[in-house]
C-alpha cells in the first residue's frame, strides 16, 4: 500500500528495521533465509519509471518477533504490508493483517500523514493493476496433476484467481507448486477477495485429490 511523503523508517520501531544499505552480512543472510529480502528491480519497465533511483537509499525491511508480519519500505510502493504463516489458516493471517495495518496507519497519522486514497479508485498504488484494495491474498499450493489439465487456466479465470511461481511475478512453477491469489483488486471488499481465494483454493485442492484417485473433475469444473 502507498504512503504519501514520509518514509516508513521514521514510523516503525527501529530495533526491528533493517535498512538495505546498512545491515550486516549476518543480518542480510538471515533475511535471505527467511525469504524476506527484496532485490533491486531489473525489469526495464520498472527501471524506466525511476523505481531503482538512488538504490538502496531509503529502502528497508521491518518485521515482528514472530516473523509473520512485515513491511517492505520503498520497494515497488512506499510500503508493502505483509502477513504470512505456514498452514491453511487464512482467517488468522487476514486478522493479523487487518490489526497490523490499522496500527501502522494510526502510527502514520500521528505524523500528520496518510495513505493515498481516492473515493473513486480506492488506494493509489504505483501499478494501476493494484488500484482499489491493493490486496493480494496468496496461497502456495501443489497441483502437479491439475496444472497439466488444458482447462487449468480457464478454471482459474472462472474463479477470479491468478497463478504465478513461488519465486514471485513472472516466475514459473518447477514442481507443480503455484502461488494462487485473487486476480481482482478493484470493485470488491477485502473480505470478499480473501473469501474468493479460500473458496477457490479449496476447489482446486479437491480437484487435485480427485485426479490423484484416478477420477474425473468434469463435475467440479466451474461453468
Automatic annotation (TrEMBL):
Residues in Phosphagen kinase C-terminal domain copies: 1-211
EC number: 2.7.3.2
Taxonomic placement: Eukaryota, Metazoa, Porifera, Demospongiae, Heteroscleromorpha
GO terms (BP aspect): phosphocreatine biosynthetic process
Family: Belongs to the ATP:guanido phosphotransferase family.
GO CC annotations on file: extracellular space
Keyword list, A-Z: ATP-binding, Kinase, Nucleotide-binding, Transferase
Keyword Metal-binding in record: no
Source organism (scientific name): Geodia barretti
Pfam family, one: ATP-gua_Ptrans
Binding site for ATP: 35, 80, 136-140, 164-169
Gene Ontology MF terms in the entry: ATP binding; creatine kinase activity
Protein name per the record: creatine kinase
Amino acid at each position: 500500500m502507498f504512503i504519501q511523503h514520509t518514509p516508513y523508517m521514521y514510523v516503525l520501531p527501529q530495533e526491528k528495521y533493517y535498512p538495505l544499505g546498512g545491515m550486516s552480512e549476518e543480518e542480510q543472510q538471515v533475511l535471505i533465509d527467511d525469504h524476506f529480502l527484496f532485490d533491486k528491480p531489473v525489469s526495464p519497465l520498472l527501471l524506466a519509471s525511476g523505481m531503482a533511483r538512488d538504490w538502496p537509499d531509503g529502502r528497508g525491511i521491518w518485521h515482528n518477533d514472530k516473523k509473520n508480519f512485515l513491511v517492505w519500505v520503498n520497494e515497488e510502493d512506499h510500503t508493502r504490508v505483509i502477513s504470512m504463516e505456514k498452514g491453511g489458516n487464512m482467517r488468522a493471517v487476514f486478522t493479523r493483517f487487518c490489526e497490523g495495518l490499522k496500527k501502522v496507519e494510526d502510527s502514520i497519522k500521528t505524523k500528520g500523514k496518510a495513505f493515498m486514497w481516492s473515493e473513486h479508485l480506492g488506494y493509489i498504488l504505483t501499478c494501476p493493476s493494484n488500484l482499489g484494495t491493493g490486496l493480494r491474498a496468496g496461497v502456495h499450493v501443489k497441483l502437479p496433476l491439475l496444472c497439466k489439465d488444458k482447462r487449468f487456466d480457464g478454471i482459474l479465470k472462472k474463479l477470479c484467481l491468478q497463478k504465478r511461481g513461488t519465486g514471485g511475478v513472472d516466475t514459473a512453477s518447477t514442481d507443480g507448486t503455484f502461488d494462487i491469489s485473487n486476480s481482482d483488486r478493484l470493485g470488491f471488499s477485502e473480505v470478499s477477495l480473501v473469501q474468493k481465494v479460500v473458496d477457490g483454493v479449496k476447489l482446486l485442492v479437491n480437484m487435485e485429490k480427485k485426479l490423484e484417485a484416478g477420477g474425473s473433475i468434469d463435475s467440479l469444473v466451474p461453468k
